[in-house]
Design brief:
Elements (H helix, E strand, L loop, with lengths): L22 H6 L7 E3 L15 E7 L10 H5 L2 E8 L5 E7 H10 L33 E8 L3 H14 L3 E7 H8 L7 E8 L3 H12 L20 E4 L5
Helix pairs in contact: 4-6
Length: 242
């Protein structure tokens, strides 16, 4: 990972500045031996942090050669962390869970590292209810789509869809904090709700979504189109037009 902290990008939604280099670790909730995370952006710079900073260095588990487990299974798995503090020689090792570590960086509170505080698993994009919001302007229809910043493929498709809508829709995003407040439960901080307010017809919206998200099976036994809009998002009609 580059030491030029000023050029780094960070994952939105976390109190700590978690570099996007850790997107895969966040998607699986699995940090591994050698991973180093800081509470201050300046600590990622060439000369280290001049700000007050806490550093987590992962001691265990050992590095893996591929995908290990899932977010849910890794959440309660064990992790050993060395915690150090800028300006002091103080260091301590803590045995905790990956979920506790995740929450410590998400909430910005080291207290989450205590293993006697097992956090509930936040809901991902496939388990979060859509939160309907009023359009910004006199738009008769909306298209809703959930995404997750850790899913690069999905994020690329969202970008493609937005380009297809172009100036025919107003694109807005709503973060996990907003969704959690509205729904009354914890949502993964990397989850985003996308909304396009538009004058396009239902069939026009469906065609755009299909162009981005649908790929017919090569071995299908029928010429019948198997595309289901509901598998890729939701259209909300604000009038009775088609």
């Amino acid at each position: 990972m580059s030491s030029a902290g000023i050029l780094m990008e960070y994952v939105d939604g976390f109190s700590w500045p978690v570099p996007t280099a850790f997107l895969d670790a966040l998607s699986l909730c699995r940090f591994e031996q050698g991973d180093i995370l800081h509470s201050a952006k300046s600590a990622y710079g060439k000369w280290g942090s001049r700000d007050e900073c806490v550093t987590f260095r992962i001691l265990l588990p050992e590095r893996s050669s591929g995908v290990v487990g899932s977010f849910a299974t890794n959440w309660k798995s064990s992790v050993r962390v060395e915690v150090s503090f800028s300006g002091t020689q103080e260091k301590k090792e803590i045995q905790t869970t990956q979920g506790n570590l995740y929450c410590a960086m998400w909430k910005g509170d080291q207290g989450w590292l205590q293993p006697n505080l097992p956090p509930p698993i936040p809901r991902g994009e496939n388990a979060v209810s859509l939160v309907q919001v009023p359009p910004e302007g006199d738009f008769p229809r909306q298209f809703y789509k959930m995404s997750n910043r850790t899913n690069r493929t999905l994020e690329e498709k969202i970008s493609r869809l937005d380009k297809l809508f172009g100036d025919r829709a107003k694109h807005r995003t709503f973060d996990a904090e907003f969704l959690g407040d509205e729904l009354g439960y914890d949502v993964m901080p990397t989850v985003v709700q996308h909304v396009w307010d538009t004058h396009l017809s239902l069939s026009e919206i469906e065609e755009l979504v299909k162009r981005v998200f649908y790929k017919p099976a090569t071995n299908r036994k029928s010429d019948r189109d198997q595309f289901r809009l509901g598998a890729h998002g939701k259209i909300v009609k604000l009038d009775q037009g088609r």
